[in-house]
């Protein structure tokens, strides 16, 4: 476990823990690139106006301002107050509008960056954390097929991580909204807000709230909860919804879309995808498919990967940019992996070989050996002083460096090299221009632990 | 060139430009790891007290505060005012103290992160930029050898980047301070501050300032400028300094240290290292070796990689942690590479192959082909709709995707696959379980352009 951080809500990792995080980040990047997503980064700050456009989150936003007040006043007058981004969707939307003339639509991008939220320090939620987002954004239109594809890309990415079994839960806003309309409830966002609290409050409380806060009758509340109780790992949710006897055009559109997602889910990622008609997602801007992901056995951790379709990710004059995307909460995931020892790095440092020194004058020769090894991708470092060999070996042992290299000059001037595997104690002659460690020792690897 | 950013001082790259930046970051990371440096990241924020401990930079610091004022007041009362870090050295020093019980000393780490400085928007300097730092920090003592090694690691890293020839300029604070003392100037920091302006003001102006501001005689000013005029690519600077006839113990120590750095520089990186006795470095905390790096022909860009030795990087009670390190200004370097087209990505997107659709029902089969290719590390994407082949090829062409894959079902039910290199127009039969693109098309590569 990580030591207690000196500032709560701002997690920092020790070097061995960072290797686990790097493995997660590398795996995500590699997968996203294999699926043809381009990397972008946006600046950490946006104007406050831009950030608060979607409302409701202002309490969590960190404004930034120069400590030198006169400089700050001049800058604010010129460009507005600035603040740190709290997600990667709002900045991406702004980037798309800023650069629309330079991008090819549909534009596929991934973005892995830190975001900041001014959570209360005492409740232990992160105030700085890393998100990994993928989105596809179109110019004017965006084929529905991307709603299917993006879920599959995330399943591919998550499947390669050292994490427990997961379930990607999918729902559709049109389905829910059409159903509510079909039973006479027209304020769909208000109904969804109540349904969103199902896991927290339970069905009875939500039924009561639907009647009190949204003006539903007991029958309407009952029907809405019946819809939310449907959960299938295949397309059979369609019949279950139909059995509730509600007719609505938007409902049909939603059913058909969700059925298309599930059909490919069953075919391409069996057991990974669930049609879960209780999924509401808090944010108002989703307009169709919505996604959430839970780790089986870790449901209380909350969703580790969420997103959805937004018909209007961004607008610029008369242009509209629809999008669909998902976002992984990397820090939440890595904190859980580290906190429960779900994965381990094969060693704690990148170094595979310590080149020892036989005497103080041999440092430069040792660097020559190191250069030869590095040319073949073998990470190594050279001892800083010619301490006794036992001490140099201990240096390697303490750090988890598996090999120590010894060079010596014989009386006849010939240099001999040997390399010792300090785990087994085996020491063998080695040629600096040829020797390779076993493949599993070449680089640090991270794998799920057996715990 | 990048489009004008919407907020000056906060550069953002287009996807093709980002590939160049990623290449630089990947190359640095790979090199640092080959030399046995561990990755760490620190939080983006420190307390203002921590940041201002070294003084002088307060005008440039961005404080952060929640927009919700009541939340903010409570947090400041509890943990102090927070601000964004302006470099990676101050946070690293704090990290070392926080985690001293969990680290092995000497501790080698690299750290690649964004930093923020509240520069005036109008002078065009970046307010958000990426630094790549390496440091070695010891507990109590740190062998001088690391001063030699770290310069060589940075030379190795910079040599692998698509940048013009560079010179790493090295000097030594002890040498300068001892020399000044030897000629009767005791306020070394004040002398260094004047010498630091040599490139900007020229020798005459600096000589005058030394007399006016530091109280030097004309002879003392002359001697200080003679020292600063010494520049050699080998160890001959020692004789040139001795010829000035100044005797001082600290001067001898500095000469001996710098000679050791240069001896290995000549041996291991000929032509890359210069003993430049005018290098002063602004910051007060350096105590021995100091480094700066310029791109030949781009001297006005300023130093792209700087650092030095600090006998007291951090302290904790009675413990002192000496360190030596260098920091690359990645954004400055990448801006120059992009601005002058010094390097180019082999294509603008990660995708190597577009899998086309013969009809709307073939999407899932096309995904099967894509899955087979991705299993061999071939980045690909599937067309979102079965537009005419000409349109699908145009989609690939516009993005710089080199290959388009075609699958069709013959009358006898047999599926045939072909792949077209859209640059040459050559189209050949291909097996999705076996086909590989030429090695140079497998991944995006970035290389120095011929311009």
Would you give an account of this structure?
2 copies of one chain form a homodimer. Helix content of chain A is 38%, strand content 23%. By secondary structure, chain A is of the alpha+beta class. Chain A has 2 domains: 15-38 and 91-111 and 122-345, 2-Layer Sandwich (BirA Bifunctional Protein, domain 2); 353-448, 3-Layer(aba) Sandwich (Rossmann fold), CATH 3.40.50.800. In chain A, helix 1 packs across helix 13, helix 5 (145-159) packs parallel to helix 12 and helix 6 crosses helix 7 (188-195). Chain A is elongated. The interface between A and B is large, with 92 and 91 residues. Chains A, B: Keywords: Aminoacyl-tRNA synthetase, ATP-binding, Cytoplasm, Ligase, Nucleotide-binding, Protein biosynthesis. Chains A, B: Residues 24-350 form the Aminoacyl-transfer RNA synthetases class-II family profile domain.
Mean pLDDT of chain A: 93
Q: What is the helix content of chain A?
A: 25-40%
The largest interface is: A-B, 92 and 91 residues
For the largest sheet of chain A, list the strands in their spatial order: 1-5-6-12-11-10-7-9-8
Q: Could you tell me the strand content of chain A as a percent range?
A: 15-25%
Structural class of chain A: alpha+beta
Radius of gyration of chain A: 28 Å
**Total individual domains of chain A:** 2
Dominant shape of chain A: elongated
Number of helical stretches of at least 4 residues of chain A: 16
Low-confidence parts of chain A, pLDDT < 50 over ≥5 residues? none
CATH topology-level name of the largest domain in chain A: BirA Bifunctional Protein, domain 2
Q: Name the assembly state.
A: homodimer
The CATH class assignment of the largest domain in chain A is Alpha Beta
From the N-terminal CA to the C-terminal CA of chain A, the straight-line distance is 15 Å
Q: Mind telling me which CATH architecture of the largest domain in chain A this is?
A: 2-Layer Sandwich
| Name given to the CATH homologous superfamily of the largest domain in chain A | Bira Bifunctional Protein, Domain 2
Number of strands of chain A: 19
Q: Mind describing the biggest β-sheet of chain A?
A: 9 strands, mixed
Catalytic activity (chains A, B): tRNA(His) + L-histidine + ATP = L-histidyl-tRNA(His) + AMP + diphosphate + H(+)
GO molecular function, one term (chains A, B): histidine-tRNA ligase activity
InterPro entries (chains A, B): aa-tRNA-synth_II (IPR006195), aa-tRNA-synth_II/BPL/LPL (IPR045864), Anticodon-bd (IPR004154), Anticodon-bd_dom_sf (IPR036621), His-tRNA-ligase (IPR015807), HisRS-like_core (IPR041715), HisRS/HisZ (IPR004516)
Binding site for L-histidine (chains A, B): 87-89, 117, 131, 135, 281, 285-286
């Amino acid at each position: 476990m990580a030591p207690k951080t000196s500032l709560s809500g701002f997690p920092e990792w020790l070097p061995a823990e960072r290797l686990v995080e790097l493995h997660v980040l590398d795996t995500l990047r590699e997968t996203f690139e294999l699926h043809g997503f381009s990397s972008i980064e946006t600046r950490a700050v946006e104007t406050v106006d831009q950030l608060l456009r979607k409302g409701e989150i202002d309490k969590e936003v960190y404004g930034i301002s120069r400590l030198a007040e006169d400089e700050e006043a001049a800058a604010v007058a010129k460009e507005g107050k600035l603040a740190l981004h709290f997600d990667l969707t709002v900045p991406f939307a702004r980037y798309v509008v800023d650069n629309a003339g330079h991008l090819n639509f549909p534009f596929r991008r991934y973005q892995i960056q830190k975001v900041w939220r001014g959570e209360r320090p005492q409740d232990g939620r992160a105030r700085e954390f890393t998100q990994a987002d993928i989105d596809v954004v179109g110019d004017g239109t965006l084929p529905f097929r991307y709603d299917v594809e993006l879920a599959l890309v995330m399943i591919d990415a998550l499947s390669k991580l050292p994490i427990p079994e997961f379930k990607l839960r999918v729902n559709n806003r049109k389905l829910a909204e059409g159903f509510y309309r079909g039973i006479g409830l027209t304020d769909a966002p208000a109904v969804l807000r109540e349904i969103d609290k199902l896991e927290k409050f339970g069905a009875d409380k939500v039924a009561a709230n639907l009647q009190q806060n949204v003006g539903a009758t007991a029958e309407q509340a009952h029907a809405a909860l019946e819809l939310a109780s449907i959960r299938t790992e295949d397309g059979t949710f369609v019949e279950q919804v139909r059995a509730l006897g509600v007719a609505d055009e938007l409902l049909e559109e939603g059913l058909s879309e969700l059925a298309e997602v599930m059909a490919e889910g069953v075919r391409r990622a069996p057991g990974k995808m669930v049609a879960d008609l209780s999924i509401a997602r808090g944010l108002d801007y989703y307009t169709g498919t919505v996604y959430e992901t839970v780790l089986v056995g870790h449901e209380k951790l909350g969703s580790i990967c969420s997103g959805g379709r937004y018909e209007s990710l961004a607008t610029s004059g008369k242009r509209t940019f629809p999008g669909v995307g998902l976002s992984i909460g990397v820090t939440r995931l890595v904190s859980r992996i580290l906190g429960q020892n779900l994965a381990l790095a094969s060693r704690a440092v990148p170094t595979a070989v310590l080149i020892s020194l036989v005497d103080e004058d041999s440092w430069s020769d040792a660097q020559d050996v190191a250069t030869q090894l590095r040319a073949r991708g073998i990470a190594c470092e050279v001892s800083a002083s010619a301490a006794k060999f036992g001490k140099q070996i201990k240096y390697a042992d303490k750090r988890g460096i598996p090999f120590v290299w010894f060079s010596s000059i014989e009386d006849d001037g010939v240099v001999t090299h040997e390399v010792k595997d300090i785990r087994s104690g085996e020491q063998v002659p080695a040629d600096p221009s040829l020797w390779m460690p076993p493949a599993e020792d070449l680089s640090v690897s991270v794998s799920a632990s057996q715990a």
